[in-house]
Write a structure and sequence with these properties.
Elements lengths: L8 H18 L4 E7 L6 H13 L5 E7 L2 E2 L4 H12 L2 E4 L6 E2 L2 E2 H11 L9 E4 L5 E2 H12 L5 E4 L5 H11 L4 H10 L22 H14 L1
Length: 225
């Protein structure tokens, strides 16, 4: 997504998803399990994730479409962005998106949901929204991360005119996250990523861990990397 690519990542996503769906249908695959994102905003990143799900279902193969907010884990670009901002900056200029609500979920819980879905029948051919037990904002997530690091939460100076482009350039300077990846991610941060339909989660015997524990696990992974 944006990393060193000149072409439209959304178009590349659609093409890959359609090819995969065709191959799955030809091979007799009964169901595809796909992890996308929560949120109904206008950002290209979030829209592309939803279009990918539609493409995967286009050939008639069953689809379990998981939709999650920020995944708390060392391999998550969104998590890494927040991690390096908090780790490197005692104070930061922050745009309006730091007040956007989100419902982060541990990567361990996400993997557990994905694995458990394979054991379900046709009732799992649906959209399943997943999130952790804690509702927060991106600014609140920064504070929780600082606490987990044993650091004082960074001072945040809100600047409402900081655009996604400027935010992505700033993130590119302060963190190792690629600027081309950061921009579509930042554009999506103005959209709430909160579970509005918990019925899908109720199909599983899974109790997601809280943000504090999830954050501590993810930070330990980052520190070991």
């Amino acid at each position: 997504m944006g990393r060193g690519r000149s072409e439209d990542f959304a178009a590349a996503d659609r093409t890959a998803a359609l090819n995969f769906a065709d191959a799955a249908a030809d091979s007799g695959v009964e169901r595809i399990i796909y992890l996308g994102g929560l949120g109904e905003g206008t950002s290209e990143h979030l829209r592309s994730r939803h279009e990918t799900a539609e493409a995967l279902a286009s050939t008639g193969v069953g689809l379990t479409y998981f939709r999650a907010a920020v995944v708390l884990g060392a391999g998550s670009e969104s998590f890494q962005t927040v991690y390096y901002l908090v780790r490197r900056l005692p104070a930061m200029v922050t745009p309006r998106w730091t007040t956007t609500r989100t419902q982060p979920i541990s990567i361990d819980d996400v993997v557990e949901y994905l694995a458990a879905a394979a054991e379900l029948g046709p009732e799992a051919n649906r959209v399943i929204e997943i999130g952790g037990p804690d509702l927060t904002t991106y600014g609140g997530m920064m504070d929780e991360m600082a606490n987990a690091m044993g650091r004082r939460p960074p001072v945040r100076i809100r600047v409402p005119l900081l655009t996604p482009r400027l935010s992505s350039l700033w993130i590119g300077l302060v963190t190792p996250v690629d600027t081309g990846v950061a921009r579509p991610l930042v554009e999506g941060l103005s959209t709430e990523t909160v579970v509005t339909d918990p019925s899908g989660m109720e199909m599983f015997d899974i109790q997601p861990i809280g943000m504090e524990e999830a954050m501590s696990r993810a930070i330990a992974e980052m520190n070991e990397a």
